[in-house]
Design brief:
Oligomer: single chain
Strand content: 25-35%
């Protein structure tokens, strides 16, 4: 299922480094549910991964992303 991210408001992680190696995240609220897009900040026109909101919440609740 394709998600339209053309109007998404992207923001960089608060853990971003000055080197520019970081990701950007956008929360998209569609007809069905909240979804979260993730993309490479160095390639904003490139592909993005889209996760269901519940999966993103589980990811943030874990400590795996801080390692």
């Amino acid at each position: 299922m394709a998600v339209d991210l053309s109007g998404a408001r992207w923001f960089k992680s608060s853990f971003s480094q000055p080197s520019g190696d970081c990701v950007e995240v956008a929360v998209v609220v569609g007809d069905a549910a909240r979804q979260v897009g993730v993309r490479d900040s160095k390639d904003p026109a490139g592909p993005a991964l889209v996760f269901p909101g519940e999966m993103w919440d589980c990811f943030l609740a874990s400590d795996i992303w801080m390692r």
